[in-house]
Specification:
This protein is of the alpha/beta class and 305 residues long. It folds into 2 domains: 185 residues, HAD superfamily/HAD-like (Rossmann fold, 3-Layer(aba) Sandwich); 108 residues, Hypothetical Protein, Haloacid Dehalogenase-like Hydrolase, Chain: A, domain 2, CATH 3.30.1240. The chain contains 10 helices and 15 strands. GO terms for molecular function: magnesium ion binding; phosphatase activity.
């Protein structure tokens, strides 16, 4: 399938009740910020009974912090940790994880790879309560802090094994080089049993093979009583691929990985052009002075930055 440009869509309103958007490279701008124009648009969505849901590899606590804006009171549903945690209307409705045995094996593998000097990588053990890291240099901690609001540095990740009441949702590896070649070299054996997902240029997630963002969106649709025909999804990278099967309105960003453009029905403008906002306005027939004012505000902000 070849995606067509978003401008081919007849201006709405269309019968859409759920909008699901990835964060990095999709909703977020070039500075990894939620565009200012999103907040008034969110109010329009809520007034029309449309649920907006962030879907990300980021931690649930991180997403909740990002959407703690005073105008975001209606954002209470999230697909976090690439689908391993799903919250609907403030309640966690779905949790998936990996076992302690896999966690131990990956800790050992990363330790050996770092000791050999072959890869400049670090591991994040992503727990339901908090994320754990062993590597403590500032560049690595800074990268992790972008995505994990609840983050704990430990002397040895082996000490985390078997923590009472904790669930390991996924294992995330950050590579200061390119993630895909590293994954091909180090994780090919693990990939026979577990899902190895390249979630960004520098990130790889190891997860339950039955879990992805699609599974998270389906759980939300079931909880909220929404159909795929009433669902629009937006994404830019490989961890968004399965999610496109959950919504009949599927959009790959102009900056998306080529595989997503093959899977999506439409191509949206790039995240740096606030493509999600532009397309949502068209889908729901939102226009007039408020939308124009929001767009102008965004353009002015970009020139100042």
């Amino acid at each position: 399938m070849t995606a067509v440009d978003w401008t081919a869509i007849t201006p709405g309103p269309h019968d859409i009740r759920l909008i699901v958007a990835d964060m990095d490279g999709t909703l977020l701008d070039g500075d990894s910020r939620i565009p200012d124009g999103f907040w008034p648009l969110l109010g329009e969505l809520q007034a029309r009974g449309v649920e907006f849901v962030p879907a990300s590899g980021r931690q649930l606590a991180t997403l909740q912090t990002m959407f703690s804006h005073e105008q975001a009171a209606g954002v209470s549903s999230f697909v976090a940790e690439n689908g391993n945690v799903v919250m609907a209307d403030g309640d966690i409705v779905d949790v998936h994880g990996v076992g302690w045995d896999l966690t131990r094996d990956v800790i050992d593998m990363v330790d050996q790879a770092v000791a050999s000097g072959r890869h400049d990588i670090g591991l994040v053990v992503c727990g339901l309560k908090t994320a754990y890291i062993q590597r403590a240099d500032k560049p690595f901690v800074d990268e992790c802090s972008k995505y994990y609001q609840a983050l704990r540095i430990v002397d040895d990740l082996h000490d985390v094994l078997g923590t009472p009441g904790e669930t390991v949702l996924k294992l995330a590896i950050f590579d200061f080089g390119a993630a895909e070649p590293m994954a091909d070299e180090l994780l090919s054996d693990i990939a026979r049993t577990w899902a190895v997902v390249v979630s960004g240029a520098h990130w790889v997630d190891i997860m339950d093979p039955a879990t992805n963002k699609r599974q998270g969106v389906v759980a939300l649709q079931r909880s909220l009583g929404v159909t795929p025909a009433q669902t629009a999804v937006f994404g830019d990278y490989l961890n968004d691929l399965e999610m496109f099967d959950a919504g009949e309105w599927s959009f790959a960003m102009a900056n998306a990985h080529p595989d997503l453009k093959q899977a999506a029905h439409y191509v949206a403008p790039a995240n740096t052009e606030h493509g999600v906002l532009t397309v949502v306005r068209r889908l729901l027939g939102i226009g007039g002075s408020q939308a124009a004012q929001a767009t102008q505000t965004e353009q002015t902000a970009q020139t100042v930055r």
